[in-house]
Amino acid sequence: MKIQNQTSVKAYKSGGFIGRYQKLVRDTVIPYQYSVLRDEAPDTEKSHVVKNFINAGKAVRGEDVDDGFYGMVFQDSDAAKWIEAAAYSLINFPDQKLEETVDGLVDIISEAQDTDGYLNTYYTIKDKDKRWTNLLEGHELYCSGHMMEAACAYFEATGKDKLLKVMLKNAEHIYKHFIEEKNGGCGGHPEVELALMKMYRATGDKRCLELAEHFVDTRGCDVHFYEKEAEKRDWTVWNSNPSDYDYMQAGKPVRQQSDATGHAVRAVYLYTAMADIASQNGDKELFAACRRLWESITKRRMYITGGIGSTVIGEAFSVDYDLPSDTAYAETCASIGLMFFASRMLENDLDGEYADVMEQAFYNTVLAGMQLDGKRFFYVNPLEVIPGISGVSPTHRHDLPVRPKWYACACCPPNAARLIASFGSYAYGENDDTLFCHMFADGTVEAKNGMKLTCETQYPYGFDVSYKIEKGGKLAVRIPKWSGKFGITANGCGIEVQPKKGYIFLDVSDGDAIKITLDGTPKFAYGSVKVPALTGKVAVMRGPLVYCFEGADNGDVLSLSLRRGGDITVGEHTETPFGEISHSTVKITADAVRRDDIDTLYTDSIPNETSCKAVGIPYYTWGNRGENQMRIWLPESLV
Amino acid sequence: MKIQNQTSVKAYKSGGFIGRYQKLVRDTVIPYQYSVLRDEAPDTEKSHVVKNFINAGKAVRGEDVDDGFYGMVFQDSDAAKWIEAAAYSLINFPDQKLEETVDGLVDIISEAQDTDGYLNTYYTIKDKDKRWTNLLEGHELYCSGHMMEAACAYFEATGKDKLLKVMLKNAEHIYKHFIEEKNGGCGGHPEVELALMKMYRATGDKRCLELAEHFVDTRGCDVHFYEKEAEKRDWTVWNSNPSDYDYMQAGKPVRQQSDATGHAVRAVYLYTAMADIASQNGDKELFAACRRLWESITKRRMYITGGIGSTVIGEAFSVDYDLPSDTAYAETCASIGLMFFASRMLENDLDGEYADVMEQAFYNTVLAGMQLDGKRFFYVNPLEVIPGISGVSPTHRHDLPVRPKWYACACCPPNAARLIASFGSYAYGENDDTLFCHMFADGTVEAKNGMKLTCETQYPYGFDVSYKIEKGGKLAVRIPKWSGKFGITANGCGIEVQPKKGYIFLDVSDGDAIKITLDGTPKFAYGSVKVPALTGKVAVMRGPLVYCFEGADNGDVLSLSLRRGGDITVGEHTETPFGEISHSTVKITADAVRRDDIDTLYTDSIPNETSCKAVGIPYYTWGNRGENQMRIWLPESLV
Q1: What mean pLDDT comes out for the span B573-598?
Q2: Nearest CA to A307 among A248, A366, A262, A261?
Q3: Which residue of A219, A452, B220, B614 pairs with A470 in a disulfide if CB–CB is 3.0 to 4.6 A?
Q4: Alpha-carbon distance values, B290 to B169, B270, B296, B459 (Å)
Q5: Nearest to A526 among B565, B607, B637 (CB)
């Protein structure tokens, strides 16, 4: 069964939990980010992105470039991700003024394109001769990829194709260089591959598909490519090691890979493209590689929060079962990329496990990346934070106790913005006769196959999901693995349907009311004993939400243990203050034990312990009340 | 009460546990290390140490230096530490041939001394003009310090003063440069300070004391000294950061310091000198600083094994309570240095807590540093090792599951050798009328104050310690803090004596037989809840020995928990095979629980568990049976 998730659902208007987040992105993230791009945000490091494009335009026209290029070699991509987020937001919230702003930026970008189709402000401003000489670090293909994604999204949102044409011309330039002129290599940071697949779908141009296939299958074939490339040039961006093959997933041809390695964002961007091509071409060998890599991630290298890339060293995957809570890297962008990968895997194989992981990553790590007011962001998402150690100890410097403000290297904030704004394309999919509900999101969905429905739910805090069918057909709804029991009613009557690979299938007619009731009982979670960091530990989940225990609710968290099999009571679903921010959430209260501290470092006396209650909040809401202790995994007490 | 521990006991001949280790050092470590110094050890990286001294001699005489200098900038210190170990060994085991070998090496070293007293092969061979221009990294004072220690030890062992005279001339050269010519600064790696104190005691030359005081009090006074020094030169050894003040304990004057910071070996070498000077001069301000630093280490920054310097980043102290078991650095040399510091603290203040820590460091981390056959060594002493992660994961590369062979940078093996060979000077101390027994060691002790006794004990495996008094006086014996109960008999009759600050005091006469019975009951140990890595965990100790649980005895260790309050049975004290090595040891067996693994990474089902036994071995014996799992701290099960 082939499903098209991405860009395939004709329209989705969300309300409820997701709608509230999408409004936050519209009202706060998108305007703030635009002010950053234009260097108009107060107290924020200079971005210069818009100025770079203006200056590149001058360079193309042979004019003087007064203030040159500023920023990272991949600075262009910030503009691209902003356009993409704005485009998805425009689908939900038409906004003439925002559209005009995007149009203006597209005009500036189009002027920066060289006559041969090349588009990258760093090289155009600084040194045209360096084009395509540093695929390892140069990020030219990466920046092109992000702008292609922006072009496709803006075309989808508005029908305007100016940027799409610019990027098709850019794709032609890349095609000429890599295919016609047979220059070897592929980008050190995968991204263009998945973007070219979107370009192929948006334009129908087969060269885009061919290029995506080419880059995917080139990777890792000449293991020493980057070393040879480095020998030929006398400059470097970061002095990256061209022999660190696994860092850029280039240690062997991708079809032979079995372990998720290297920089986690690069990895999942690559795997996303692999899964997309596998689905497009029915390429079973490529899908088998995707499946192995998926299992490597989800069975051996993923946090319970859907966080991936556990080590700060290279922002990378570590070895199997090396999943420390306190020194976790677990970059927000990596979990976003994991959602991309999961979404494409679903297109190959309708199996609830892909959607389970997609949801796990979204409701925990991706949402945790953003402060509840949309103004500050985590790159790094540890599962334990202890002020005094986290952010301070030499091995914990990256694990910050509160979200920092906008970074100069602003990859995660706009990535989160575009993901949230396009949530519907991950939640829903369709094929000729079926509408697939992978995730539960309040709102109205209209499929190209003619089906239309409205979903009402308070998910992830309410576990009733009601579908009001406006135009019928076949409906496939995922039953999450965590919901061991569930109920279904059709027009008020209970029906029995057994899920197949995590989905129930229903024939629905116009006017039907379908209600799915999932299991909202909070549950204890345990890790495999193969994970050293989790032995003797227990966590609490409710639905897709992982809970955590913060100092603000519990005082000292380090002295708390959770009682095995103890009661967990679920609080009211109410607006809750987080400092000055208010957020609608549900707390849980669990039976716990608190240990007295001792006045020495070690003791041979059994410590004194007393019964108490531990109050948990959803992990994604942590760190919104200033510096305090936070733990997901607590020791388990058996009495 | 002032005690002189180091070099003050007239003679000590050990038997039992320590004697066996001292024979291992004599028979294996010292001969092997000498073959390394001469580049005669098979399959071992070139040392070139002896050749460096020969070549420096040629350079001094103006002859051609054919094969120049080879090795690290501190290569000379390997020869010094070997001479020092050989000297201590000669005290226990007179050996004409070894003494002749040392004499020959001393001749070579004396020829390498420049006419002005300068002695360092790196600079003498490579570039005399670079002398004293890189105190940050140059290790000139460090190498001088180690050779001074060697000179004092060899003089003590044999009465031969050739090397002592060489090093006194070297001290005069240093005195001229730093005191008379008023050149600023002190060594980036403290060491010469504690060595000058030994020189002062061996020679009575007050300039040695003055120099030691000068270097101690200079440190941290001009915070920017190393930066200014770096600006003046156009070369570097490792491109070290001169602004990383805390790394070399130079962030503020030592008398104002309160936190143990930076490279752990440097720190404790410095603190040792500070405590030595405080004792020598009755300097209460300096002792107060020592006390603060001691508490920083032992109350907040030390492993239960006496390991210190928890982070690999800079081989350094981290922040308070950051004591991860799996990524621990805990260098062998740092625990040796902690013993030096503890020994000097005892000279300031007879308090059992200093000896408790000295013993904790010795019987756990220091001994763990050496394979049971004396042939391989750990620098790094983690408290948890999981093959597949340890030594492999980017954050665990330094934590090796088995001891590597001799390193090019051979600091720990000779350091362990000299410590073991001189154990008696840490175990015993004296003043005018008292003999102090800080640690329990089988053997005969003769004090300069005329007292003489023989100690018989199977410690650390037997807990009866019998003293046969040959020449009486006052006897002070430490009662370890871990021994909550103890008994004393004098000539067979039980007597009641209450310890004062951890010591009992007895008047003993010729022929008296004193027997101390300590508590050998194995005990559970717990960490403060301020240590995140230890919450919910428990360990087992017996006497001074920390136990650990290895795969070789237990299969999968990660699935084991120890039952709270469960039985711990003590095995026989027998020769036990560790692979091809045999070692006399005692295993313990504890009530435990084994958890079944699950086939997923996470589950919401309470895991299946069954009762079992966990077998522990002393931590210092771990890693002698090939790669396998090892844990000191196990989760605690309460049922």
Answers
A1: 94
A2: A366
A3: A452
A4: 30, 10, 10, 30
A5: B607
Cα gap A116→B98, rounded to integer Å: 80
Determine the Cα–Cα distance for residues B297 and B317; give it in Å rounded to an integer. Answer: 9
pTM of the model: 0.95
User: Which position has the token pair 């501190």?
Assistant: B74
Q: Is A314 on the interface with B (CB under 8 A)?
A: yes
The DSSP call for residue A302 is B
Nearest to A453 by CA among A518, A510, A515, A517: A510
pLDDT of residue B7: 46
SS3 A298: helix
- From B527's Cα to the closest Cα of chain A, the distance in A is 4
Contact assessment for residue A143 and residue A120, using Cβ atoms and an 8 Å cutoff: yes
Give which of A289, A397, A343 is closest to A7, Cα–Cα.
A343
Q: How many CB atoms sit inside 10 A of residue B508's CB?
A: 19
pLDDT of the residue at B409: 62
Chain A partners within 8 Å of B541 (Cβ): 604
Bond from prior residue into A460 cis (ω within 30 degrees of 0): yes
Which residues, other chains included, contact B104 with Cβ-Cβ below 8 Å and sequence gap of 6+?
none
Residue B140 neighbours by CB under 8 Å, 6+ apart: B120, B123, B131, B132, B187
What pLDDT score does A409 carry? 62
Cβ partners under 8 Å of residue A49, min gap 6: A37, A71, A75, A76, A78, A79
The C-alpha torsion from B318 through B319 and B325 to B326, rounded to 10°, is: -50
Determine the pLDDT at residue B12: 77
Asked if B604's CB is within 8 angstroms of A541's CB, the reply is: yes
Q: Which residues of chain B are within 8 Å of residue A384 when distances are taken between CB atoms?
A: 532
Burial of B547 (0-12, 13-18, 19+ CB in 10 A): buried
Portion 434-453 of A in contact with B at CB < 8 A: none
Q: What percent of chain A is predicted at pLDDT more than 90?
A: 92
Give the integer Cα–Cα distance in Å for B589 and A133.
64
* Better-predicted residue by pLDDT, A515 or B404: A515
Q: Is A636 helix (H, G, I), strand (E, B) or coil?
A: strand
CA nearest neighbour of B467 among B516, B503, B431:
B516
Number of helices (H), then strands (E), belonging to chain A: the values are 19, 24
Q: Are the CB atoms for A229 and A133 separated by under 8 Å?
A: yes
Contact A378, A332 (CB under 8 A): yes
SS3 sequence, B210-241? HHHHHHHHHCCCCCCHHHHHHHHCCCCCCCCC
Nearest residue of B to residue A318 by CA position? B393
CATH 2.60.40.1180 residue ranges in chain A? 429-459+463-518
Give pLDDT tens digits for A405-433.
Answer: 766 666 778 899 999 999 999 999 999 99
Count of beta carbons in the 10 Å neighbourhood of residue A207? 20
Return the exposure string of A371-402: e unless at least 16 CB atoms fall within 10 Å of the residue's CB, then b.
Answer: bbebbbbbbbbbbbbbebbbbbbebbebbbbb
Q: By C-alpha distance, which of A637, A521, A394, A180 is closest to B264?
A: A394
Among candidate residues B320, B331, B310, the one with its CA nearest the CA of residue B395: B310
Choose which CATH entry (1.10.1740.10, 2.60.40.1180, 2.40.50.200, 2.60.120.260) describes domain B429-459+463-518. Answer: 2.60.40.1180
Residue count (chain B)? 639
Helix (H, G, I), strand (E, B) or coil at A163: helix
Residue in this structure with the two tokens 């090595």, named with its chain if needed: B581
Which of A317, A322, A364 is the mutation pick for testing B, counting most B CBs within 10 A?
A322
- Overall average pLDDT of the A168-192 stretch: 97
